[in-house]
Amino acid sequence: QDARFGRDLSKSTLKDFQLAAEIRSAFFPQGGSVPSVSVTFTPFSLHGDVDAAVLDVDGQTVQSNQAGNAPSTVTWPSGTASGSASLSLTPEMPGRESTIKFEGPWALKRLLDK
Length: 114
What we know:
alpha+beta, 3 helices, about 25% helix, elongated
């Protein structure tokens, strides 16, 4: 009976199942029920008017300055209840937002979309 079911599925449907399996293994490691993703940020350069930038994801920070930068990895979700993501630039620039911040479980995604 299972073999007949498999024959009846189109190649497109099978590809969809394969894609779903790849997504599951990428975002739900070890078969868990909570998604988890680690992202490594490598700041390359800053605008000449900016001395420093700080990315904060649930208290995990990635700092960038004019002198040089090292890669930093953040994990989402972090396990804290805060659910926040922000990017701050110093010094403050007149007429421009110096900090953007998002709250909630999808804060990092919303910040990256900005």
